[in-house]
Amino acid sequence: MNIMRCCLVLLMSNVFILKAQDGPGGVGNTSGTSGLVLWLDANTINSSDGASISSWTDNSGFGNTASAPSGAAEPVYNTGIVNGYPTLTFDGTNDELRAADAASLDLTAWHFFGISRAGVNKNYNALLVKGSDSQENYEFLAFSSGLWHMPVLWTTGARTFPNTTTTQYTTTNFDVFEYSYSSAVGRDVYKNNTNIQTDNESRTPQTNNNPLYICNELGTTGRFVNGEVSELILFNAPLNTAEDIIVANYLAAKYNRTLSSFDIYNEDNAGNGNYDHDVAGIGQASDGSNHTDSQGTGIVRISNPSGLGNDEFLLWGHDNGGLGTFGSTDFPAGVQGRMHRVWRVSEVNSSGGGVNVGNVDMQWDLTGLGPVTASDLRLLIDTDNDGIFADETPISGATAVGGNVYQFTN
């Protein structure tokens, strides 16, 4: 397996952050110009443990922020619940959030990801609903002790309501759920990358002018979620296979879940040091679909792989170390300081075997971290994987590409 650890070092005591493909896992962007139409991440909420939350800011760039209709409906923010990350707790009685109707939320195709755990498996836990009962544009609701229910009203006037056949929503774990649909490929529902529902439905969903309900359903009693929600992501079309794999790995690493298939990023396990944070990736799936430019929620952007082939991926994440340079001693002679934060990389195929995606460009965004001179920057790669950077040869050649972003090319 081809694995490397890397960090940025600075000949001067300066440091750095980045934009571009900055959606979840580096898929889509947050400027409101991509297919990412809703992104609610509890980790972006600035509040104290146990506080009631009146609104959950949408990070997609489309402004689909979800708000509580009253003080009594506000969920509670809890820190450090799942792998150190926070969650919103909904009481199952009257807690809910709503995003106002918008063209970006009126969908005839979609790809939804959710990280949630049931508090009580009751009838019903309505996680995400656009529309009222029997008038659903799209819906993801658990009932009957944890079966997922996906009703849709079609433009033909017909309504179908498939369910998973076994319990999937449980009180045990925060799981990675995803639900995609388009008339071209039908419906697929996954739990931790295990398919739990599929069909060849090809009709067009009927849109509506109702708000998007988070953790409840419009006009029907007893459907408030009793449970916890950490992240909700909605795209306006199914992702390609490579993008889907990357987003699922970002979520699995962040929330400490193991995917049943395509668990490409393996630096999030304890044996490799739990590099769980800001995971992003590039790659090409076996069907030829690819994603070749990615940044995600972190400060590192990697793009332009020169030798990317089918079933080849490069994903990276960090150890959540500090970005400052003071106090670090593990660096070679000639360097005056390095970041405490270290990134670790998986360059593998779907079976975990080592691959080579070729040369890549790496960008680092240093916004807000003081003045930087490009010629002062060095990149350290732990080529012998011994956990020590002091025995490595610093890589120079950084160039300023604008906006406080610095690039190591090829």
Short characterization:
The chain has 410 residues and is mainly beta.
| Proportion of strand residues | 35-45%
Q: Compute the gyration radius: what is it?
A: 22 Å
Order of helices and strands: EEEEEEEEEEEEEEEEEEHEEEEEEEEEEE
End-to-end separation: 21 Å
Tell me the major beta sheet.
8 strands, antiparallel
Unreliable stretches (pLDDT < 50, length at least 5) are 10-19
Mean pLDDT: 94
Shape: globular
Structural class: mainly beta
Count of strand segments: 29
The helix tally amounts to: 1
Q: Roughly what percent helix?
A: under 10%
General description of the model:
With 410 residues, the protein is mainly beta. Helix content is 3%, strand content 37%. The strands form six sheets. Strands 2, 5, 6, 8, 14, 15, 16 and 18 form an eight-stranded antiparallel beta sheet that branches. Strands 1, 19, 20, 23, 24, 25 and 27 form a seven-stranded antiparallel beta sheet that branches. Strand 14 and strand 15 form a beta hairpin. The chain starts with a strand and ends with a strand. The relative contact order is 0.19.
Key terms:
8-stranded antiparallel β-sheet, 410 residues, mainly beta, 29 strands
